[in-house]
């Protein structure tokens, strides 16, 4: 968890409805790559901690007997359940709770996944607890976009989203320090997962990079949804100024692309895997 910041339940308040439209997907084939790396055969159980609207757990559910999606945001869980119904996935149980509530009587798992959610937790305590919840040889999995190097820009004459200008507009409305729930992140979110997992008794990380590279078209509505899907620009942070902010945001987007269309290249997906040794708890 970031120094000087405390979690509160407004972190993603109002963001769930914007996820599907606003967020870029993980690399095509990431679920298949992870299934191959873990030698999944349709047995065992999966826990997705901080599951959000179910993006990862729904993609992986077919490789397990049963899955659990855990998230403290009721809006996220409602959206996840809606997405599960739309996709016909019936093997996922949705549970309201934080990572710090684990083990929460949820039992043992073949894999526990954190998809861009581990940095919001009390990482040392959570990693130690998760280790006790894994079956022998079970895997702690961290999934994220590969940010270094960043994805190459879309080829000309396609117009890239004006992320720099969007960020400047957010800061003008919400202040120069990144917002997160009712607090701020002076130094951003923490990294260094390898050190945290080593302290918890995990070793020998396995790293997969699943390439993407496809160019996807984005509309102004998609980018507005992207902004509101983020913790640092969640709808509630703007209060009664949300409509004014959105009006200015759409003006920035119109100026950048009068035709209303943008394009960007999907980033690769990075997957890190740590396994619990067979002979220890």
From TrEMBL:
<dbReference type="GO" id="GO:0008168">
    <property type="term" value="F:methyltransferase activity"/>
</dbReference>
<keyword id="KW-0489">Methyltransferase</keyword>
<keyword id="KW-0808">Transferase</keyword>
<dbReference type="InterPro" id="IPR029063">
    <property type="entry name" value="SAM-dependent_MTases_sf"/>
</dbReference>
<feature type="domain" description="Methyltransferase">
    <location>
        <begin position="47"/>
        <end position="138"/>
    </location>
</feature>
<protein>
    <submittedName>
        <fullName>Class I SAM-dependent methyltransferase</fullName>
        <ecNumber>2.1.-.-</ecNumber>
    </submittedName>
</protein>
<dbReference type="Pfam" id="PF13649">
    <property type="entry name" value="Methyltransf_25"/>
</dbReference>
<dbReference type="GO" id="GO:0032259">
    <property type="term" value="P:methylation"/>
</dbReference>
<dbReference type="InterPro" id="IPR051052">
    <property type="entry name" value="Diverse_substrate_MTase"/>
</dbReference>
<dbReference type="InterPro" id="IPR041698">
    <property type="entry name" value="Methyltransf_25"/>
</dbReference>
């Amino acid at each position: 968890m970031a120094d000087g910041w405390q979690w509160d339940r407004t972190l993603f308040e109002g963001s769930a409805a914007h996820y599907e439209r606003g967020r870029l997907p993980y690399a095509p084939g990431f679920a298949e790559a992870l299934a191959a790396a873990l030698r999944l055969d349709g047995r065992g159980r999966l826990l997705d901690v901080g599951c959000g609207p179910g993006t990862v757990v729904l993609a992986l559910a077919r490789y397990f007997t049963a899955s659990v999606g855990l998230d403290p945001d009721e809006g996220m869980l409602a959206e996840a359940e809606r997405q599960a119904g739309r996709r016909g996935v019936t093997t996922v149980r949705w549970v309201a709770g934080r990572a710090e509530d684990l083990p929460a009587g949820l039992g043992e798992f073949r894999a526990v996944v954190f998809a861009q959610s581990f940095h919001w937790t009390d990482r040392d305590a959570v990693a130690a607890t998760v280790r006790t919840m894994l079956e022998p040889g079970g895997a702690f999995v961290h999934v994220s976009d590969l940010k270094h190097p960043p994805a190459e820009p879309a080829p000309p004459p396609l117009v890239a989203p004006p992320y720099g200008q969007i960020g400047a507009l957010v800061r003008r409305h919400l202040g120069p320090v990144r917002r997160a729930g009712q607090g701020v992140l002076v130094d951003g979110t923490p990294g260094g997962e390898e050190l945290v997992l080593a302290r918890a008794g995990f070793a020998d990380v396995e790293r997969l990079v699943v390439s993407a590279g496809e160019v996807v078209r984005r509309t102004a509505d998609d980018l507005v949804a992207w902004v509101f899907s983020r913790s640092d620009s969640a709808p509630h942070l703007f209060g009664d100024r949300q409509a004014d902010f959105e009006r200015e945001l759409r003006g920035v987007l119109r100026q950048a692309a009068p035709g209303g269309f943008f394009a960007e290249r999907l980033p690769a997906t990075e997957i890190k895997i740590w396994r619990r040794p067979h002979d220890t708890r």
